[in-house]
Design brief:
Blueprint lengths: L2 E3 H7 L7 H4 L4 E5 L3 H14 L4 E5 L2 H15 L4 E3 L15 H14 L6 E5 H4 L8 H5 L1 E4 L9 H7 L3 E2 L8 E5 L2 E4 L8 E6 L2 E8 L6 E5 L1 E4 L9 H5 L23 H4 L4 E5 L1 H24 L7 H4 L7 H6 L2 E5 L8 E3 L2 E3 L6 H14 L5 E4 L2 H10 L7 E4 L6 E3 L7
Parallel strand pairs: 1-19, 2-15, 2-16, 3-5, 3-14, 4-5, 7-8, 14-15, 18-19
Antiparallel strand pairs: 6-13, 8-9, 9-10, 10-11, 11-12, 17-20
Helix pairs in contact: 1-3, 3-4
Amino acid sequence: MTSLEFPEFLSSENLGQLSAFAELRSGMLHVEGTTPASSALMVADRFCKYPQSILVVVDDYRTGEIWMQNLQSLCGEKNVHFFPSLGVKPYEAKLPFAGILEERLKFFKASQGKLPFIAVCPLDSLLLRLPEPNSLEKKKIVFRKGDVIDPLSLRKILGDMGYTEQPVVSTVGEFSIRGCIVDINLYMQEHPVRLEFFGDEIESIRSFDIFSQRSIDQLQSVEVYPHGEFNLSVQEKSGIPLEEEELVWWRRPEYEVLKSSVFDYMPDAAIVFDKLSILEESAGKIGAAHVKAYEKAISQQQKVSSPNDLWWRFEVFEPEFSKRVVLDFTRAHMESRDWISISARQQTKGVSGTSGLVKEIESFYAQGGMVYIVAHSEGSAQRVQHLFDDAPIAGILIGDLSDGFGSNRKTSPF
């Protein structure tokens, strides 16, 4: 009995009907009868066999978390990014949380790279209007060892990028200038970085421990992205009354052109809908909520942009669907060439003990199925191998899926 990482397993195994998405070359495929884990397996199967970016659109944040858990286990954490919404209600006088902004920055950075990736995107985030895809890269600054720049000039540069000056950096989004030393605590960096100058020349770049202040790694360069995708310059901020600062995201169209969408950031990606019909219905409700919130904001004399300037309508995206490979997980069933039923069933929750699991495995095997056990780690895999040594198991897979499942439609893992 062998143990494999999921990417290695998926790149070489045919999963029967669960490989239907991997084999799809054009058009839309509708699939019903899947579980959360088997749905993710279909998506991961395509990604591992034919590396291409994939956009997974889900109805809400909780569903997105389940997709993230499964896809990161199946494809590796570095290959899967979450693209959350702002985490605030429409027109709420509140700024997005730092953690959400960092997750969004990771998506933007991945979208400008050369490697394919999977993005999980809740519907309300999909509907947000965005600036052109390369806008964030244009705002990025790269500091290299040996560069010549006045360290005092970084006060304005970093301030305009949304960073806040402090005597000593403690949280992400802060910087400090102390003579020839400039510290910056950045998004997407495990540790803050320290630029040390000799006159106007960057003599060294180091990451350091925020508590002990000790150096960790010597760096040749560092990329500094803005502190979030949308920031006002220090001068622009000075023209906004203090009581209106937390509404500035709802005035974003006044400061930059928002004519792009997530689809523009992933122009060659396949699309996966977690129940397209439900997403269409939810999009209508979200749009109505935007209008209601806007009317309330206007009645309170708040200066904000209109919903049409901040969000897309879902139907605007429909031309994209005809251009791409699309998978729709659905609850409906139709007799059609582009409609298949997986008939997956979740692993029985009530089964307990090794003997009970062995009986379930033997029953599935007797029906012609191939059985795989998912273990959290190599150590767990070794224990599983010992416990189920005599059971008819094809292999052990290393990962962490939300649910076990089986399917009687051709060969499927369990």
